[in-house]
Amino acid sequence: TYAPKLILMDISDINCIQDVAKEILNCYGCVDILINNASMKVKGAVQSISLELDKKIMDANYFGPITLTKAILPSMISRRTGQIVLINSIQGKIGIPFRAAYAASKHAAVGFFDCLRAEMEEFDISVSTVNPTFICSYHRQPAPGNWEASIWK
Questions:
Q1: Number of C-alpha atoms within 13 angstroms, CB side, residue 88?
Q2: 46 within a domain of the structure (yes/no)
Q3: Which residue in the list 2, 28, 62, 102 is annotated as catalytic?
Q4: Which of 34, 37, 45, 125 makes an SS bond possible with 120, Cβ 3.0 to 4.6 Å?
Q5: Is residue 142's pLDDT more than 70?
Q6: Is 102 among the residues known to form the active site?
């Protein structure tokens, strides 16, 4: 039995994820179940969302989970056991208006984890993707000109 340890991480900061994974593995030795459940979304017309914000959404929703998964995966492979879960979104299967960046990031994540599922079968590592419908998230109303505040976390 291990005492819980709080480790804070910004999933959109790809550069810190490797260090966090090392900290977790050093502390506990292994990860039995990895649940990727972080997400960012923004609502707006394609032409009104900056490329900078598109990239930020992609970092949090696609590159973040795959970077963390890739950091933990060698330990699971060497032990030939583990479970990886992606909590994604129905928008990873269908796109809806005013959610292009979010839907694109979720589609990419589904594609990656579907491929990973097939590749990990030989190592007895289970990979699951959960695609719930709309959920109520924390949301802040943005101040004029402040696109960061329009992000749901």
A1: 29
A2: yes
A3: 102
A4: 125
A5: no
A6: yes
